[in-house]
Design goal:
The structure holds two protein chains of two kinds.
Chain A lengths: L6 E9 L8 E10 L5 H15 L21 E2 L2 E2 L20 E5 L8 E3 L2 E2 L2 H8 L21 H11 L6 H5 L6 H12 L8 H14 L10 H5 L7 H15 L3
Parallel strand pairs in A: 1-5
Antiparallel strand pairs in A: 1-2, 3-4, 3-5, 6-7
Helix pairs in contact in A: 2-6, 3-5, 5-6, 5-8, 6-8
Chain B lengths: L6 E4 L20 E2 L16 H8 L5 H4 L3 E5 L3 H13 L2 E5 L17 E2 L11 H11 L6 H21 L24 E2 L5 H19 L2 E4 L2 E9 L2 E9 L5 E5 L2 E4 L20 H8 L4 E2 L4 E7 L22 E5 L17 E2 L1 H5 L9 H13 L7 E2 L2 E2 L2 E4 L1 H27 L8 E10 L2 E2 L12 E3 L17 H21 L12 H20 L5 H15 L6 H21 L11 H25 L23 H4 L1 E6 L8 E6 L8 E4 L2
Parallel strand pairs in B: 2-23, 3-4, 3-11, 4-7, 11-21
Antiparallel strand pairs in B: 1-24, 5-6, 8-9, 9-10, 12-20, 12-22, 13-19, 14-15, 14-18, 16-17, 18-19, 22-23
Helix pairs in contact in B: 3-6, 3-11, 4-5, 5-11, 13-14, 13-15, 14-15
The chains are: A alpha+beta, B alpha+beta.
Chain lengths: 253, 676
């Protein structure tokens, strides 16, 4: 891209010093934004300018910056990860126009408290996984890998939903703040595989209990979660979750 | 990948340049030290060494295990797998990561696959062949006992991961699929589309979280290790900073494991995650752990080029693209800013096909990378100018699209071309892709013996953070194999021999060594916050990266390295006097976090240059301009440099001490590579 199509932007950013102090929107002007910048590189440039002026840079999470670690996540103009189906780090400024005003907020959910500015605490996801989001197999005790064939279609479906990156966009997008898509993806991933069957009932019951305990809301089939998901996890994993839960309850769990 | 097995000639047949024994390029930059010997590797037949060592390593009674505290820093494949396994065994494990969840460690970004000598294709693979390929791929600069063990346990990894529910690609019969990859002729790579690292890491992460629920593992997320605690010569704990509250905490233990990954971010731009850093390893180095072969860096040829000075990281495109894409640049500099579609065939230089007619676009990573640099240095690069130079070459699918059709390319390269379009805004089906090499892995790291123990007793190092298995160059799909081999199957056996002497004498937080470590961390942080200079941390990091890339990147020379060392020393001095870090310690402060990391990168960068200066030979990812054949190919000097260079920290401002560990091959013969 040439240098002559740089943009000027007005950024409205949520600033909050810590988890207990009230936050507010602040407005910043940013010029010379290249359309080839990623959204987070645009914020890097803002932060360098703030630092030079002696103002506290905007805190935001990111790590791999290639769309796979799940660390980044911002509400951009009200959309989780912004206007494209991707992670915030893979969103580029060519998706915006010169002169545009962009509103940037952290994930909003009771179960994801703000730590600072745009950084939230998503440790509730880890605690859900701790309640059965695994297959109990100790190192060294595994049988030969080919001893249990897995039908290709089952393996493909398991893979497709195992691509969840745990970013939390589904929760942020959901009017109820539900983590059902996140949970459904894990239930479906492990439930599609023969290795996941022995713990299938206890897994869904325990994970759902932890989900509710963490303060995530219930699912009312709105579908904003799947629309926001950068990995396009389909809504039917929630049907699978509900089906597995009913089956488990019928089995007396 | 469909690389042919390289032709080989023995080292004796290759042409030699001027006798290197006459030179000691790094004289004055280091102090010679005593030779280093790995005392742990058994000496019997290579196939028996690991089982011998497992038998000799002492056991720890299950009832004693819960009295033993293990600290593990890092939750990538090497750290999460170790934490889960040691937790299952009943030890008390504390697991640390700087990310907000263990699941985010950068192993997650690995695309291609994981090697294992299962021989499911019955195509002649075996443990011995995987061992052979890995030693050869590493250009005969790795330790053969370690590599053999890696190949041996590779098959267990696949069993373990399948049992955990890792959704590897399968064939219609329900059995696992394999593909071939990087520099070998057998199909031994297991994969989960282009997201193998993610799926393996999630498997290890889930095993780790299971142990958290069981109460054997405690996780400390958003915590960064800032110092190692050494008491009476033994590693006994770490000092960490809670990145949310700023609390500087002491964690004491019987043993410390570093699984903190590689240091490619010393180059500022790399394919590493933003947070990847050398601090845990460097703090340990300053406390007595030797750093081995720090100059061995792998530069991957197929990455998306830098688009401007705002660039924060680089993105790898799987090198499988080289199977169908043709790499070229214009013959004439005047054509470099033209639309590539308007440049006729006659004016294009398919330089890899021209220079390497038998391997063409499929030459190994190091050779493809260096050739791209050379044509760009000549002024024939393409794409936007960054700092006055065009740094990119075309990877053209036009011929392949003609041959296989657009759908054929889509099917094979699926999401890669979409990813390219998302990042660059250009449609690779219409316009040739632009690629350029980028740093993406380091073979060097903390020196460890066969037990993965560093030169500090009680400090073990696993995964990319150690130096052990890949020599001077790593083959594709071998990083995931090594991380999981170390964490699931090697460390749990070797660490018990050390812990059999424990629990060690209780130490308290007022022990002088603990107080010293804690105080030094606080003083460093106070310093960064009080300098109030004029330059941001990032600006120093960027400058360091430029120096490293220019002088310690794809081609290194004596003059360039000496210049780099001077520049780095000046930069270091300026950094400590003029860095600007705002805010306080007692809150989330990302500038402060980066300041500590960049301070350590600067010191590491100097050592990398000294190591590269000392090694006046070309091997694997290390190319010295002074050591090449008449045709400009890499030339090793086995007579002089068949050793591991292990560097001991001798104090600030003091030259490091070089200890040499001779590499002895009993099961394999050293050959010179050739790809013409």
């Amino acid at each position: 891209m040439s240098d002559n199509n740089h943009m000027s932007l007005t950024l409205k950013i949520w600033r909050q010093p810590d988890s207990v102090t009230a936050g507010a929107m602040h407005t910043y002007q940013l010029d010379d934004v290249s359309p080839d910048m990623s959204f987070l590189e645009m914020l890097d440039v803002l932060n360098e300018q703030l630092n030079a002026k002696g103002e506290d840079p905007v805190a935001f999470d990111s790590d791999c910056r290639e769309g796979i670690c799940g660390m980044c996540g911002l509400m951009i103009n009200g959309d989780a990860h912004g206007p494209e189906v991707t992670t915030t780090c893979q969103l580029h400024m060519r998706s915006f126009s010169d002169g545009e005003t962009i509103t940037i907020e952290p994930w909003r959910a009771t179960a994801f408290p703000v730590i600072k500015d745009l950084v939230v605490d998503r440790s509730a996801f880890d605690r859900i996984i701790q309640q059965g989001g695994y297959i109990s197999v100790n190192t060294g005790s595994a049988p030969e890998a080919h001893s249990v064939p897995v039908p290709r279609d089952d393996a493909m479906r398991a893979f497709n939903v195992a691509t969840c990156i745990g970013c939390g966009a589904c929760v942020a997008a959901c009017p109820n703040g539900s983590a059902s898509l996140f949970m459904g993806a894990k239930i479906t991933h492990l439930g599609e595989l023969p290795q996941g069957q022995p713990e299938r009932d206890s897994r869904v019951v325990d994970m759902v209990a932890q989900h509710d305990h963490e303060g995530f809301g219930g699912c009312t089939n709105i579908g904003q979660c799947t629309a926001a998901c950068p990995k396009e996890i389909p809504l039917d994993v929630i049907s699978q979750l509900n089906k597995d839960l009913r089956t488990a309850l019928k089995h007396g769990h | 990948m469909n690389y042919e097995m390289p032709d080989t000639v023995t080292a004796a047949e290759a042409s030699q340049d001027t006798p290197a024994e006459m030179t000691d390029d790094a004289a004055g930059y280091y102090t010679p030290g005593e030779p280093l010997v790995d005392a742990k590797a058994p000496t019997g037949p290579i196939a028996d060494r690991w089982s011998d060592r497992k038998f000799e390593a002492r056991l720890v009674n299950p009832s004693n295990r819960r009295k033993l505290d293990v600290i593990i820093v890092g939750t990538g494949l090497a750290g999460a797998s170790a934490a889960a396994t040691l937790g299952e065994a009943g030890y008390n494990v504390k697991s640390f990561c700087y990310q907000d969840s263990p699941r985010r460690a950068h192993s997650i970004a690995a695309q291609g696959g994981i090697n294992a000598a299962k021989n499911y294709k019955e195509d002649g693979d075996s443990v011995h062949r995987l061992f052979y390929d890995t030693v050869k791929g590493g250009d005969y600069r790795s330790r053969e006992s370690n590599v053999y063990r890696l190949a041996e346990v590779s098959t267990n990894i696949i069993d373990q991961c399948v049992a955990q529910g890792v959704p590897f690609a399968r064939e219609y019969g329900g059995l696992l699929d394999n593909r071939s990859f990087g520099g070998v002729q057998v199909s031994r790579t297991f994969y989960a589309r282009g997201q193998t690292g993610q799926q393996l890491l999630i498997g290890a992460y889930q095993a780790l979280e299971r142990q958290v629920a069981a109460g054997t593992v405690q996780t400390f997320t958003r915590h960064e290790m800032l110092e190692l605690i050494v008491v009476d010569g033994k590693a006994r704990g770490i000092v960490s900073r809670d990145m949310v509250t700023g609390a500087i905490d002491t964690h004491l233990a019987d043993v410390v494991v570093l699984a903190s990954g590689g240091y490619g971010n010393v180059f500022y731009l790399s394919t590493n995650a933003m947070g990847c850093n050398v601090t845990a390893a460097w703090r340990a180095h300053r406390k007595g752990a030797y750093m081995a072969n720090p100059c061995y860096t792998q530069i991957h040829p197929t990455c998306i080029p830098v688009s401007g000075s705002h660039q924060s990281k680089l993105t790898l495109m799987s090198e499988s693209l080289r199977n169908d894409g043709r790499i070229w640049v214009p013959k004439n500099e005047a054509d470099c800013d033209k639309d590539p579609r308007d440049i006729p065939e006659a004016d294009r230089d398919y330089y890899l096909e021209r220079i390497y007619p038998s391997f063409g676009n499929l030459v190994p990573r190091d050779i493809a990378s260096r050739a791209a640099k050379n044509v760009c240095d000549e002024g024939r690069g393409v794409g936007p100018k960054v700092d006055g130079v065009r740094r990119g070459v075309y990877l053209d699918f036009a011929a392949a699209i003609e041959r296989l059709g657009r759908d054929g390319i889509t099917e094979k390269y699926d999401n890669l071309l979409d990813m390219y379009e998302r990042i660059t805004g250009e449609d690779p089906y219409e316009v040739p892709m632009r690629i350029y090499p980028a740093v993406h892995y380091v073979m060097g790291g903390v020196w460890v013996d066969y037990d993965l123990q560093s030169t500090i007793p009680g400090l073990f190092v696993t995964g990319e953070a150690n130096f052990s298995d890949h020599g001077a160059n790593r083959l594709g799909a071998s990083a995931l194999m090594q991380g999981l081999a170390d964490g699931y199957f090697v460390l749990p056996h070797t660490i018990r021999d050390y812990l059999a002497d424990g629990p060690f004498e209780k130490i308290t937080e007022d022990h002088p060594a603990v107080v010293e470590a804690h105080t030094s961390v606080k003083e460093r942080i106070d310093h960064f916050l009080s300098v109030n200079g004029t330059r941001s941390v990032d600006s120093y990091h960027r400058e360091l990266g430029n120096i490293m890339w220019e002088y310690c990147g794809m081609e290194r020379t004596e003059d360039g390295l000496k210049k780099a060392i001077d520049l780095i020393r000046t930069l270091k001095d300026d950094f400590w006097r003029n860095v600007k870090v705002l805010g306080t310690n007692e809150s989330l402060n990302q500038s402060l976090e980066k300041a500590g990391r960049v301070a350590d990168f600067i010191e590491l960068g100097e050592l990398m240059c000294i190591d590269a200066l000392n090694r006046r030979e070309s091997c694997g990812g290390h190319f010295r301009g002074e050591s090449q054949t008449e045709d400009g190919e890499a030339l090793r000097h086995d007579d002089l440099f068949a050793y591991v260079a292990a560097w001991e920290f001798a104090g600030d401002g003091e030259p490091p001490v070089l200890h040499k560990e001779d590499l002895v091959y009993t099961a394999i013969e050293m050959k010179q590579r050739s790809y013409k």
